[in-house]
């Protein structure tokens, strides 16, 4: 369970900047 949470956290923090940047581009 902890490994799954850890993996999810790594994926989230890896993709999050791209998601925020994508939303910023859509807004602009």
Walk me through what this model shows.
By secondary structure, this protein is an all-alpha fold. The protein has one domain. It contains one helix and no strands. The mean pLDDT is 87.
How does the overall form come out from the CA principal axes?
Answer: rod-shaped
Q: What is the end-to-end distance? A: 39 Å
**Fraction in beta strands:** under 5%
Write down how many β-strands occur, each being a DSSP E stretch of 2 or more residues. 0
- Cα-atom Rg, whole angstroms? 12 Å
Succession of helices and strands: H
Which segments are poorly predicted (pLDDT under 50) over 5 or more consecutive residues? none
Report the total helices: 1
Tell me the helix content: over 70%
Largest sheet: none
| Total tally of structural domains | 1
Based on secondary structure, the structural category is mainly alpha
Average residue pLDDT: 87
